[in-house]
Each structure stands twice: as C-alpha cells, then as structure tokens.
Amino acid sequence: MVTSSLSVYAGVKSYGLKGKLLTRKDLQMLSESRDLDELVTRIKGTSYEDTISKVTKPYSAAKIELALRERQAEMHYKMVKASGSSNVLFAYYLRFILQNLKIILKGKILGRGQTEIESSVNLHASELIKERDIVVKAMIARDVDEAITTLKGIGIGAKVEKALSLYHEKKQIQVLDLYFDKFFYENLNHVIKTSTEIKLHTLCGMEIDYYNMLCVLRGKFWNLDENQIQDLVISGASGASKEILTRMISSDSIKSALNELTSTKYKNLVPQEENAIDAISQFERAFDMHIYNIMQSQFGKIFGFSTVVAIVRLIEYEVRNLSAITFAVEQKIPSDITMSKLLVKENSE
Questions:
Q1: Torsion, CA 144, CA 146, CA 152, CA 158, rounded to 10
Q2: DSSP 45
Q3: Domain limits, the chain
Q4: Pick from 108, 249, 250, 320: CA 20 to 30 A from residue 60's CA?
C-alpha cells in the first residue's frame, strides 16, 4: 500500500537516482570506444561498474545488454518496494515480463532454435516477482500453439492468437509487438484510473496516446483495414480524443493521418516528411524525445509520485542508450551517428 510517508521516501530515492544518470558527455565518451573491451573498461568508471563486471569474455553486445536489463529490473523492483508496492510502478514493471514473452513467441514463430531463444531471455526480472514459471513454460513449449495456451493463463493468449492470425495474413512480425503493447497499456490505463494524482494521469495518458497514434500509423503502413486498426487501439484512453483517432484511422494516407494531429497539443511533433516510413520514424523519435523531456521536467517540481514514475522511465531510456552504444561499438558505427540516435538532453554535462 502506498502511504504518504512511503511516497515521500520513494520520491527522495528518485531524486538520488536522478543525480546518478549518465550525462551526454558520459555517453559521448562511451560511444567513442574502439571496441567492446575498451567500452567495458570505460563503463567500469560509471555507476554501472558492478553490473558490467559480471559480464564475462568474450564480450558481445547481446551479453552486455542482458546485464544492463538485469540491473534496470533490479532498480525498478527496488522502487516498487520503496513505494509500498505501487500498482502504477508494478504496471510498468510488467513490461519486463512481456518483453521476454515477445522474444519467446517471435523466436518460435520465426523458427529460431531453443538455444538462441534462451540466450536472449533474461529471467531475473521474473524471478524478482516470483513469476518465473509462466516465462519458462512458454520458453520450453514445443511450438507456438502450446506457448499461446500457456499465455492464456495470464489473460494474454487471445491477443496473441489475434496477432498470430494477422501475422500470417500480413507477414509483419511487428504486429506481435503491438498486441503485447496493447495488453501492457490497457493494464496501465486501468491502473491509472485508480490514482488520485493528476500528474500521473497526464504522464501515463501521454504514453497511451503515443501507443494509439503509432498503432494507426503502423497499421496504415501495413495495409491493415479500419477494423483491424481499431482492434489495436485502446478505447477510452485519455488525451487524444476518440474523434481524432477515428479521423486518423479513416484517413487515406499516413500523411493525412499525421495532419489530423496539427490541431492537437502534439502538433509540434508532426514531421513534414513525404516518405511514409521516414515520416513514421521521425514522428516516433519526436514523441520519444517529448516523453523523455516530460519525464525530466518532473524533477523541477516539489516531491510527488510523478518523479518516481519518471525515474524508472529515465533509467529505461538510459539503458536503451547504452544498448545502442554497445551495438554501435560492436558494429564499428561512428560515434557521431550513434549520438544522433540517442535520447539525451542536449545540454547535459
């Protein structure tokens, strides 16, 4: 139960963690590493020393990312406990479990070997909340159908069946991402309605808007019909009105759908790009950066539970940045290109 004293305690902890986030200068230094050995050495000079020291040679981007995700899960779990097991923080924590299930289902659909699937799954997040069994059962399932049957036990099996059917029709594996994300955001939307903190309604409503808009844009890019897109959208969500989403769904092109947002609070995020895939990519990055900046701005205010949500989201963005850097160093991608893709404050020292 989240009491006022626990909320303040968690808020204080969030400010402490905020002060330990890596700066743009730190990320720049890491991105300039010549190889993974040098990158690991440099990461040891940051707050990630204990985490990176557990990674064994030979180093790979995949092994390093798994270690980073494990640390992220531990920090998030500690914030859940510090807050008195906040339902909102726990709703966000479920993303770790769903990410593992995505990896497993995609692997089975694409015919990947069991060893390859297992090497990509991090069970630590599930173990922390004693929900290891559902992930393991899905992982050792003989085939996709048996894995889906397992997932029916947590209420997501029907959505995965829809995703699988749509995948067979459109041959777009990313459809699976959207159905898992719908499960996540529907649960978040349900939980947030029980909160009395207005800031949380604004923060979470913005993220649900983001999901809904991207569903429409990606659905149009994949040539889904209006009913298929509507099935992906979360109904009754806050923020972007149902009328605007309806017009986006009914529009005749991706550009027209984006133009429907020019009269909303998200108008500055609408790209001018004509190419459909580039327009979606630019909009996605702009909205990601918008969310990142909003999360940063929570720390300019007096203690509130919004800072607790903000810190777990900012840590998630930091891990995404570090994972991108690790992949770039492994692939010998120049530092300037890598830095242009990261989500980080322009003026962070």
A1: 40
A2: T
A3: 198-303
A4: 108
Phi-psi map region of 172: left, alpha, beta (phi>0 left; psi -120 to 50 alpha) = beta
Token pair, residue 16, equals: 């402490």
Question: pLDDT (tens digit, 9 = 90+) per residue, 237-263?
Answer: 554 578 899 999 999 999 999 999 999
Compute the distance between CA of residue 133 and CA of residue 249 in angstroms, rounded to an integer: 39
Q: Over 90: is that where the pLDDT of 195 sits?
A: no
Kindly report the CATH number that applies to the domain delimited by 198-303: 1.20.1690
- For residue 349, what pLDDT band results from cuts at 50, 70 and 90? low
Q: What angle do CA 289, 62, 24 make, to 5 degrees?
A: 35
Q: For residue 1, what pLDDT is reported?
A: 54
Residue that the structure tokens 């947030």 belong to: 192
Helix (H) or strand (E) holding 218: helix 198-221
pTM of the complete model beyond 0.85 = yes
Task: Identify the DSSP state of 1.
Answer: -
Provide DSSP, 333-345. --HHHHHHHS---
The shares of helix, strand and coil residues in the chain, as percent rounded to the nearest 5, are 75, 0, 25
Write down how long the chain is. 349
- In whole angstroms, what is the distance from residue 213 CA to residue 245 CA? 7
Q: Measuring CA to CA, how many Å separate 69 from each of 63, 250, 309, 322, 325?
A: 10, 39, 17, 10, 14
**Axis-axis angle for helices 24-31, 305-330 (nearest 10):** 20
* Token reading at 4: 């006022």
Torsion of CA 92, 94, 97, 98, to 10 degrees: -80
| Predicted confidence (pLDDT) per residue in 262-305, tens digit | 999 999 999 999 999 999 999 999 999 999 999 999 998 766 88
Do 162 and 127 form a contact (C-beta atoms < 8 A)?
Answer: no
How many beta carbons lie within 10 A of that of residue 67, not counting itself? 22
